[in-house]
């Protein structure tokens, strides 16, 4: 067990809050899809002496002295990250997924450029162009929706949208999308649109009547070369935010975006089971140079080297065979939970899941996401209310909830517990019997928590 006694001696008030939060987590089941249980090694690395060191810059290119050990740690994190995801370059400094996304947009875009991302109601993330965020304020944002019948991505419709709007940056990835995303198909669509743009520019020059193009200095440039340069100024870049599915990608349980995207971002604290933070990956040397400048000095100062040390631990754990076994259990548990919920007549959107999360539309149950979230918390199950595609409620109320199995799988829960959890969620939807059933449901949750402690070393 991590020893917090020193804090107890120096600041009893904060110590009590730390223990109170531990007890809350121990005695509740975490079904929030973006949360997980870290190993004690990851937790300890975050509290290491690396937190004392200021290290603006990158390995071997720092603005402070005394960074020789820090350089080794960050390079180890970079090397492990590249090995884990089979990519050429990685930036491990972003403090969060949102800042990783911001860095990419700052590296690629100019203010006012068009970006295209999935809408919040369809499962997208705030930083994919939502109006209240920097991505929605700095750029012209086009938000695409899932198909109104299947609630899945319609790639034919997506092609029409990309061809029509020709965004400078197309963002794939989601926060609440339960199906596998076909990155290869999106790459093909973007390549087709970019080729159409090139052909249009090339034909413009060919039809101009000139033999070749001359730049401002009078140098002759072939139509092929100038068309390529002009296309590069307006072509669509392809970014994937794989924050939620990074663990699945790392273990081959989801198609990897690395071979298809120009740049990939992720958090490290969801299915990767690491510290709270972000990473940016690419196979392009030109792109990583832009990314590195965008992260520092673009949007961040000194990196959190203690968190980077914890990221290195996380990547090391994810490279082990046991991690793939864990991720397979996460997916299996999610499918078992989805099937059990379907048996209780829940509207599981898309009819199931391919990953670690489930999205429930509660309108057939006569309860809002806000109401069900509150009831579940009363019995010890933690979820988050979530908008569903074409939602009729506001964002503060919502018609749905999002469920994830990464954290409870880390505690050791299996398919039998998924069936019990589904039954509890169903009981919490019944307004006429909830109050009389509440204590019994809480006892059932407590029994599961006692059987699967948050950390096995802790009594």
Entry keywords:
single chain, 459 residues, alpha/beta, Aspartate Aminotransferase, domain 1, seven-stranded mixed beta sheet
Can you offer a commentary on this structure?
The chain has helices at residues 5-10, 12-26, 40-46, 68-85, 97-108, 134-137, 155-165, 183-206, 223-234, 246-250, 285-299, 305-318, 321-343, 369-379, 406-411, 415-427, 434-451, and strands at 29-30, 57-58, 61-62, 89-91, 114-118, 140-144, 169-172, 213-214, 220-221, 237-241, 263-267, 278-282, 347-348, 357-361, 381-382, 384-386, 400-404. It is an alpha/beta fold and 459 residues long. The chain has two domains: 50-318, Aspartate Aminotransferase, domain 2, CATH 3.40.640; 322-451, Aspartate Aminotransferase, domain 1 (Alpha-Beta Complex), CATH 3.90.1150.10. Strands 4-12-11-10-7-5-6 form a seven-stranded mixed β-sheet, with helices on both faces. A four-stranded antiparallel β-sheet has the order 13-14-17-16. Strands 1-15 form a two-stranded parallel sheet. Strand 2 and strand 3 form a beta hairpin. Helix 5 (97-108) packs across helix 11.
The CATH homologous superfamily name of the largest domain equals: Type I PLP-dependent aspartate aminotransferase-like (Major domain)
Low-confidence stretches: none
**Largest beta sheet, briefly?**
7 strands, mixed
Strand proportion, as a percent range, falls in 5-15%
How is the largest sheet built, in terms of strand order? 4-12-11-10-7-5-6
Strand element count: 17
Taken together, the total number of domains comes to 2
Structural class estimated from helices and strands: alpha/beta
- CATH architecture heading of the largest domain: 3-Layer(aba) Sandwich
Distance between the termini: 9 Å
Within the CATH hierarchy, at the fold level, what is the topology of the largest domain?
Aspartate Aminotransferase, domain 2
**CATH level 1 class label of the largest domain:** Alpha Beta
Oligomer: single chain
Mean pLDDT: 95
Question: How would you describe the shape?
Answer: globular
Helix content: 40-55%
Radius of gyration: 24 Å
> Helix tally?
17
């Amino acid at each position: 067990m991590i020893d917090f006694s020193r804090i107890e001696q120096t600041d009893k008030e904060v110590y009590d809050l730390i223990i109170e939060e531990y007890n809350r987590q121990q005695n509740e089941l975490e079904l929030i899809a973006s949360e997980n249980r870290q190993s004690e090694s990851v937790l300890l690395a975050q509290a290491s002496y690396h937190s004392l060191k200021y290290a603006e810059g990158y390995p071997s290119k720092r603005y402070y002295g005394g960074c020789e050990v820090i350089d080794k740690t960050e390079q180890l994190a970079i090397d492990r990250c590249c090995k884990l995801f089979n990519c050429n370059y990685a930036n491990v400094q972003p403090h969060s997924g949102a800042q990783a996304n911001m860095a990419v947009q700052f590296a690629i875009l100019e203010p006012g450029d068009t970006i295209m991302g999935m809408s919040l109601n369809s499962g997208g993330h705030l930083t994919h162009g939502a109006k209240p965020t920097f991505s929605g304020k700095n750029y012209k944002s086009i938000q695409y929706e899932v198909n109104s019948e299947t609630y899945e991505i319609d790639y034919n419709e997506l092609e029409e949208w990309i061809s029509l709007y020709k965004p400078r940056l197309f963002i794939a990835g989601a926060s609440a999308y339960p199906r596998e995303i076909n990155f290869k198909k999106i790459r093909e669509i973007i390549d087709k649109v970019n080729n159409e743009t090139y052909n249009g520019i090339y034909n413009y020059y060919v039809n101009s009547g000139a033999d070749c193009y001359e730049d401002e200095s009078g140098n002759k440039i072939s139509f092929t070369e100038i068309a390529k340069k002009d296309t590069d100024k307006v072509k669509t870049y392809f970014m994937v935010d794989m924050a939620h599915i990074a663990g699945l990608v790392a273990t081959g349980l989801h198609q990897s975006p690395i071979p298809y995207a120009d740049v990939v971002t992720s958090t490290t604290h969801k299915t990767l089971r690491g510290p709270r933070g972000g990473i940016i990956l690419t196979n392009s040397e030109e792109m990583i140079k832009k990314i590195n400048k965008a992260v520092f000095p673009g949007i961040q100062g000194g990196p959190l080297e203690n968190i980077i040390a914890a990221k290195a631990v996380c990547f090391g754990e994810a490279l082990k065979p046991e991690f793939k076994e864990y991720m397979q259990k996460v997916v299996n548990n999610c499918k078992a939970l989805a099937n059990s919920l379907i048996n209780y007549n829940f509207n599981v959107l898309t009819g199931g899941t391919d990953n670690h999360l489930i999205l429930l539309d509660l309108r057939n149950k006569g309860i809002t996401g806000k109401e069900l979230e509150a009831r579940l918390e009363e019995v010890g199950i933690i979820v988050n209310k979530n908008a569903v595609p074409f939602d009729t409620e506001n964002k503060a109320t919502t018609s749905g909830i999002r469920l994830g199995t990464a954290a409870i799988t880390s505690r050791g829960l299996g398919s039998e517990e998924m069936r019990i959890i589904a039954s509890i969620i169903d009981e919490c939807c019944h307004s006429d019997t909830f109050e009389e059933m509440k204590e019994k449901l809480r006892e059932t949750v407590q029994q599961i928590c006692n059987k699967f402690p948050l950390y096995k070393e802790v009594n």
